[in-house]
Specification:
mainly alpha
Amino acid sequence: MLAFGIALFAELIRHRNLRTVFKSTTIFFEGMGNQFSYAVTLIIGGQIFAQGLVSLGLIESLVGSLQILSFNSIGLTSVLGGGMLGLSMVTGSNVAPLFTLVPLVPNIVAHLGLDPITTMLGMQNGASLGLFLSPISPVMVGVAGVAHIKSVDLLKRTAVPVLVALLTSCMGIWILY
């Protein structure tokens, strides 16, 4: 909002007509509305998908499998972080899969004797970076729309930096926690 206010003030100095300045803001709001109407639709679809995963029993199967495998902290963080990365890529949202699975973490780690915070950090890390590897995520759709390119082409340009960021942040989690 501060940047928007500064831009309005600069335009007012440039045009010296408040009506012209306010008319020019309609372009900004129309463009934002067009791009983010897709984002809202994708977020709703992602939440429905995540709820479907819970309804199908996939979450309970995952919990049972992880308890059988008895991972250490790094293994569990890697598996759940990778799972969140994949779910975030598929749903185009980091919120829906993260809020679906995070409440289950204390039960998973309690049986394994591990720290829930470390595990949740890995999950949040994977979910957040998965947005930049999803061609249907709102941020990718919005940026691709502004740049007038396909979101898949944008994905090709962001894949390597995002994977480097993922590895770097995972190593930070493993070293610091």
